[in-house]
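Hi P.,

Sorry for the delay on this. The queue was packed all week, but I finally got your sequence through. Input first:
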Amino acid sequence: MIFNTLAEFKSALPHGTRLVGLDLGEKTIGLALSDSLRLIASARTNLKRAKFAANAVQIEQVIAQEQAGGLVIGLPLNMDGSSGAAAQSARAFARNFAARSPLPILLWDERLSTAAVTRTLLAADASRQRRREVVDKMAAAYILQGALDAMRNLP
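Then the structure:
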């Protein structure tokens, strides 16, 4: 089920389960994972973008292996808050995944996440090749961490 508010999403989560964060890039899907206390998000891997069904199976395997209780998907809104093609694609991905899984799903505003991660990698003097290899999974961690931080401020 896709939740529209963070409070609803949080209340639907099974206690003590980890969360999976996704950054839906054009060529790869960045995947991050929280700890069971939902304090820290860590970059996990990049999945090569393929047909939805193939990527969904890969994500479901991670969910099962890590006993995750929820999914946070980055929603790439335009800077003015409007939805473009990428946001529509993220919403479609979430709807398709929700049709396969009972897991609570949250679409989380990810404006500037890739830019923030890229700045961090540039500051660390990462090569262009290295940035290309890690930017999506680090963006997924950035997105997931934002949702975790916001959840901690809820009652």
